[in-house]
Specification:
Radius of gyration: 19 Å
Strand content: 15-25%
Helix content: 25-40%
Structural class: alpha/beta
Largest sheet: 6 strands, mixed
Distance between the termini: 58 Å
Length: 197
């Protein structure tokens, strides 16, 4: 009788683990010899809102952006990024998948991936604000922005210094938040508080 329960328990475990939302980020490790120009290579048919949000985030982090056509090679520029965003329908349209990759001289040096396509058991959690998710992934992918890259000067006076200090403080808070291993809902709540400061 006991042996009958083991397959049932294993099957239930598989179903529960198979219905999860996955997010993995490997922050981009950029050489200090790189200039802050980054080429943007969107996926074919990408929603304009994704492209605009991502480009603005990179500019806010100190990068100079240059758009390349979809399908361009990441080795077309010394520093480049490719990105995919997929929307799905389940009572409403939502962003179900995002994959952002960073390349240095054609070699991948960072990646941020969000995948809720197998999150059928977490129906409410998959209905996210796409722009906030793109912001979260970009912040994790580029924790230092363009700081430290060749030709990037940090202002030491006036408003510029205050902005750099605030940005560095937010980045430190986000890094600490990521290390806490909080449940998704609690992480999102604290993330919003940090970004609102």
């Amino acid at each position: 009788m006991r042996t009958l329960y083991i397959p049932i328990i294993l099957a239930a475990t598989f179903l529960v683990s198979g219905c999860s939302i996955k997010q993995t980020v490997t922050p981009a490790e950029l050489s200090s010899e790189m200039t802050p120009e980054i080429c943007l290579i969107p996926a074919e048919g990408l929603r304009e809102g994704f492209n605009t949000a991502y480009e603005n985030l990179l500019k806010n982090k100190g990068f100079h952006t240059r758009q390349l056509p979809p399908g361009s090679s990441p080795s077309s520029c010394p520093l480049s990024t490719t990105y995919i965003g997929t929307w799905s329908w389940d009572l409403a349209i939502y962003m179900s998948y995002a994959d952002i990759r960073v390349y240095q001289y054609g070699q991948q040096v960072g990646q941020a991936e969000y995948d809720s396509r197998w999150g059928g058991g977490r129906v409410i959690d998959k209905f996210i604000n796409a722009e906030k998710k793109i912001t979260e992934l970009t912040n994790q992918l580029f924790p230092n922005g363009a700081a430290g890259l060749k030709g990037v000067k940090e202002s030491k006076s006036g408003t510029g210094a205050a902005l750099l200090t605030k940005d560095a403080y937010q980045q430190r808070q986000l890094k600490q938040l990521e290390q806490q291993g909080l449940p998704y809902e609690e992480y999102q709540k604290r993330y919003k508080l940090i970004m609102a400061d």
